[in-house]
């Protein structure tokens, strides 16, 4: 079992729709969770962090965390073509907060 | 504000040649520094991390090494490159904020070993 799992996609949504990206993790000791956006050929960019169960909203982005189910998700409302990118889920290891483990990413395509 | 510089942006090297990638951070002191590698279509693999000058931890056995000669400088090296060393290399920094790490990445180096 991979430490952080994501569906590779592509996830295709029409412009204006809600995109839902999901991530599961295996380390029950993990405390910090992050979503990064990566455009093709570019470096990842941090867009959301979440540490407690529940929802955290920032503009059009909402991160959701359920530690009991070891599940974290990212919702993008009013999706725009500029949101088309690969979204990486990252989780810190329960034994050390120095190390982030990344999923392989979900590719999102927003159709105009 | 903090910035991270990584160079070169692209590099094509023959098998067996040496490698040196450099990364520097500005605007912060005593950052944690990281080297990640991303193979085509894959996630990020942590290669090395450093919490201070001369302190290097390696995550996976490999053909690469890292050094931190100064507080805000991190270098990735190899004596002899292998084909399998090809990938997108990313330097990152963070400051431990008590609730885990927020990583901020440099622009990356696309390395092709031929």
Summarize the structure.
Chain A has 112 residues and is an all-beta fold.
Please provide a written account of the structure:
The complex is a heterodimer of chains A (112) and B (114). In chain A, strands 2, 4, 5, 9, 10 and 11 form a 6-stranded mixed beta sheet that branches. In chain A, strands 1-3-8-7-6 form a 5-stranded antiparallel beta sheet, with no helix packed on it. The relative contact order of chain A is 0.35. With 112 residues, chain A is an all-beta fold. In chain A, 0% of the residues lie in helices and 57% in strands. In chain A, strand 7 (61-66) and strand 8 (71-76) form a beta hairpin. Chain A is globular and about 45 Å long. Chain B has no helices and 11 strands. Chain B is mostly beta strands. Chain B is globular, with a radius of gyration of 14 Å. In chain B, 0% of the residues lie in helices and 56% in strands. The chains are: A mainly beta (112), B mainly beta (114). At the A-B interface, strand 5, strand 9 and strand 10 of A face strand 5 and strand 10 of B.
Could you give the order of the helices and strands of chain B? Answer: EEEEEEEEEEE
Shape of chain B: globular
**Oligomer category:** heterodimer
What's the mean pLDDT score of chain B? 90
- Total beta strands of chain B: 11
Our measurement of the CA-to-CA distance between the termini of chain A, rounded to an integer number of angstroms, reads 36 Å
Uncertain stretches of chain A:
none
Order of helix and strand elements from N to C terminus of chain A: EEEEEEEEEEE
What structural class do helix, strand and pairing data of chain B support? mainly beta
Percent of residues of chain A in helical segments?
A: under 10%
Count, helices of chain A:
0
Structural class by sheet pairing and helices of chain A: mainly beta
Q: Main beta sheet of chain A, described?
A: 6 strands, mixed
The Cα radius of gyration of chain A reads 13 Å
The most extensive interface, with participating residues per chain, is: A-B, 24 and 23 residues
Give me the number of helical elements of chain B.
Answer: 0
Number of strands of chain A: 11
């Amino acid at each position: 079992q991979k430490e952080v799992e994501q569906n590779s996609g592509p996830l295709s949504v029409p412009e204006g729709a809600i995109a839902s990206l999901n991530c599961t993790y295996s380390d029950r000791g993990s405390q910090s969770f992050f979503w990064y956006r990566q455009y093709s050929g570019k470096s990842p960019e941090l867009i959301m962090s979440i540490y407690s169960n529940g929802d955290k909203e920032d503009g059009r982005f909402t991160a959701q965390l359920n530690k009991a189910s070891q599940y974290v998700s990212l919702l993008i409302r009013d999706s725009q073509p500029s949101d088309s990118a690969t979204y990486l889920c990252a989780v810190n290891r329960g034994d050390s907060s120095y190390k982030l483990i990344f999923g392989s990413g979900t590719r999102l395509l927003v159709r105009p | 504000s903090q910035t991270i510089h990584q160079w070169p942006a692209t590099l094509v090297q023959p098998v067996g040649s040496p490698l040196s990638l450099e990364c520097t951070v500005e605007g912060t002191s005593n950052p944690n520094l990281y080297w990640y590698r991303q193979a085509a279509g894959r996630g990020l693999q942590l290669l090395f991390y450093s919490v201070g000058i001369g302190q290097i931890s390696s995550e996976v056995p490999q053909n690469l090494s890292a050094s931190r000669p100064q507080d805000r400088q991190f270098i990735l090296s190899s004596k002899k490159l292998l084909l399998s060393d090809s990938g997108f290399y990313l330097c990152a920094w963070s400051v431990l904020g008590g609730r885990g790490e927020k990583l901020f990445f440099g622009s990356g180096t696309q390395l092709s070993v031929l």
